[in-house]
Amino acid sequence: MSDALRVFDRTLLRARRRRAAALGPATFLLERVAEDLAERLGAVLRDFPVAVDLGTPGEALRHALARHPRLGTLIAVDAVADHLPRGRPAVVADEELLPFRDASLDLVVSALALQFANDLPGVLAQIRRALKPDGLFLAALLGGDTLTELRQAFTIAEAEVAGGISPRVAPFADVRTLGMLLQRAGLALPVADVDRVTVRYETPLALLDDLRRMGATNVMFDRSRAPLRRGVLMRMAEVYAARFSDADGRVRATFEVVWLSGWAPHPSQQKPLRPGSAAARLADALGTVERPAGEKAPR
Predict the structure, then answer these.
(1) How far from 85 is each of 41, 67, 104, 157, CA to CA, in Å?
(2) Domain ranges of the chain
(3) Residues sharing a CB contact under 8 Å with residue 244, sequence separation 6 or more, in sequence order
(4) How many CA atoms lie within 13 A of 244 on its CB side?
(5) Is the entire prediction scored with pTM above 0.85?
(6) What is the CATH number of domain 3-146+172-200+255-265?
(7) At what angle do helices 10-23 and 204-214 cross, to 10 degrees?
């Protein structure tokens, strides 16, 4: 992959996740997303004999889906063998290079992993090819407003203390862009929606500790390699507390979870009507008078 397409250092990402596991992972957000994903999937009244959990850290999603009555074999996919479950179907592979043949999967799910893909359009295209006709893709990614408070506080602190800024918080995509990528990948009936989660901390430094335990600290390819200066860190904490604290002194952190779903095309799926094929006029339904475009209604 060319450097122009490398936003995230995926080797460093894997190292950060190993460190998080050794520290004792902070899994509250992942557990919430896993339960939500299981609930969304439970509303789909069909069987999924062969499914893939693509890159989800930890066991939270697999535990949540273990209760799903219509789910058959669930294959875990991760680039690090030590992160995969033992005694259950698993494949060592990078999320950006899927090893599955075309039209071989009934379901692909993923929780809080694909936001770190350098070529997300390519990943979605591979998922589309791997799904059987009428197969489902369902995933949750971190969206563009995630950690907006931390991003702003670091920007102000570095500008004041260091005289310049460097990327500290990842530039995740927004919901509209992600919805367009579903369509670009050729997935039918695409849906993208947002769930904003606000987490409160005693201090901004407590937030940073949680991010380390999530394996979610800075893994951008263009990050500064110099150690973070203590003066910048302390000023960031001051700015954060001044701008984003509640009356009780605790600070807020936003996690924007973008939900994506789409189906591999199949003739049985609903299709939009052809233009001009409507059997009733909108003006009649609204009780108004239809006028040519550009014509103004009389006063």
Answers:
(1) 22, 17, 22, 42
(2) 3-146+172-200+255-265
(3) 149, 153, 251, 252, 253
(4) 25
(5) yes
(6) 3.40.50.150
(7) 110
